[in-house]
Specification:
GMP Synthetase, Chain A, domain 3; alpha/beta; 8 strands; Helicase, Ruva Protein, domain 3; three-stranded mixed beta sheet; Rossmann fold; five-stranded parallel beta sheet
């Protein structure tokens, strides 16, 4: 059993990133084979949820290949003392009350579609998702406050609602309150006008989980920031969970008081970036499946390549395609998608050529174009090659397959990997981002 799991882990290590393997698989262990399934123990409930939702398909496939026969897979979580959840003795039955009360209805503010199950995880949001899940499993016991930041339509509100859903599933009696900063401001103004500040403060001091969306809008509003400061302190000091979203980091929000900036980063900050190509395709396919709509992969790729702003744009494209297909009773192909979406997705009137991009990048890094196209993996050639691939995806009309072909016959997955790597580096390193931006402007000017 241990030997089988070791073989599986060796295969898993080849399929996932080193960070993902260390984070999610290093603490696992096989505990038994039961009812035709290998039972594998995760170190805690947080790891269990991630392993089940993200890696079950991969592990089951590997297990089927490595095991003898159709051996299934079942995950359990280690409990206190290291015993698997499935091995715990059953608790003594509790007396059944004469009339069991039905659980409280979930608050009206909750969007039933915004759950962890419907959230598509990718490189740009993996960390934020993991933090949100940790908070939902153990509110008030770490990562408090959780501050999520990123652009419009990238999933911040989705994660807020997902946290609320998960908390209320585990504790239906929990007092979970969601508000936008605009609603908070309006409620405060109304309370001041009608002399009901005592009620306002009492309401916000009794919350167990406080969810605040778009907090940047309280910047510059002195009385609102003062009241928010005291609300934050009261909840934090009593161990209540606070989750806040914004379009930027606290330090980069003009008009936000220093005392709030300081408190917002007491716990954990996590950014949500624009989805990469693979995540956009996965989002489109998942949402199409929810609508029982068969979305051809080439159409999903077409939309993902050209819808560059956010998830809402992807959803808008998909809705229009589904409506067109149902209205005309026709299957969708790329040509039809181009026609249907021409008012949403605008094809660039001009685009840089791959040859121009390769020339500009090679001149900047003082290497030959043939070196950029070569298979040489030394850093002096690999980094310019990856930047050139990234710019080709950003500025040209070529597909990832065509870009790979123009870089010495590389596979399209190499182009995608290079693009993701450069995006991550620009997010983390301002100096590198400035270099990439300079090259981008040169390529655009050369059109």
């Amino acid at each position: 059993m241990q030997d089988l799991w070791s073989k599986c882990l060796a295969r898993v290590r080849e399929e996932v990133s080193p960070q993902a393997f260390q984070r999610w698989f290093s603490g696992t262990r096989p505990v038994r084979i039961e009812d035709g399934a290998l039972v594998v123990e995760a170190p805690d409930l947080f790891s269990l949820d991630n392993l089940k939702s993200r890696f079950s398909g991969l592990v089951e496939s590997i297990l089927h290949q490595e095991g003898s026969g159709a051996l299934g897979l079942r995950w359990v979580a280690a409990m206190n003392g290291g015993h698997p959840a499935a091995a715990r003795p059953a608790p003594a039955p509790s007396p059944v009350p004469p009339a069991a009360a039905s659980p409280p209805a979930k608050p009206d503010f909750l969007n039933p579609k915004y759950t962890f199950g419907t959230f598509v995880i990718g490189g740009s949001n993996e960390f934020a998702h993991a933090c949100a899940l940790r908070v939902a499993e153990a509110p008030g016991r770490g990562l408090n406050p959780l501050f999520l930041y990123g652009g419009v339509g990238l999933g911040k509100t989705h994660l807020l609602h997902a946290i609320a859903h998960r908390v209320l599933e585990a504790r239906p009696e929990a007092r979970v309150h969601y508000t936008s900063s605009e609603n908070f401001i309006n409620e405060l103004i109304s309370s001041l006008q009608h002399n009901r500040m005592a009620e306002f403060r009492s309401k916000y001091r009794k919350i167990d989980v406080f969810l605040v969306d778009d907090v940047q809008f309280i910047a510059g509003k002195e009385r609102t920031q003062e009241e928010f400061f005291f609300t934050f302190n009261a909840l934090y000091e009593t161990g209540k969970q606070i989750i806040i979203t914004s379009d930027k980091m606290p330090k980069d929000t003009p008009g936000l008081e220093e005392r709030l900036k300081t408190r917002f980063v007491w716990g954990m900050t996590a950014d949500i970036g624009a989805p990469d190509f693979e995540t956009k395709v996965a989002i489109l396919q998942k949402k199409a499946a929810e609508q029982n709509f068969n979305l051809p992969s080439e159409v999903a790729h077409y939309i993902a390549e050209r819808a560059r702003s956010n998830i809402r744009e992807l959803e808008g494209c998909l809705i229009k395609i589904i409506f067109h297909a149902s209205l005309h009773g026709a299957d969708i192909d790329v040509a039809m998608a181009q026609e249907v979406l021409k008012g949403i997705i605008r094809e660039p009137s001009r685009s840089a050529s791959i040859d121009q991009i390769q020339r500009i990048v090679s001149e900047h890094f003082q290497v030959r174009v043939m070196d950029i196209k070569s298979k040489n993996r030394s850093q002096s050639f690999a980094l310019p090659r990856q930047i050139a691939m990234y710019l080709a995806r950003e500025l040209s009309r070529a597909s990832t397959t065509e870009i790979g072909r123009r870089f010495g016959g590389k596979d399209h997955s190499t182009v995608i990997h290079s693009t993701n790597k450069i995006r991550e580096m620009t997010r983390r390193d301002p100096e590198f981002a400035a270099t990439v931006q300079l090259l981008k402007e040169k390529a655009e000017a050369a059109v």
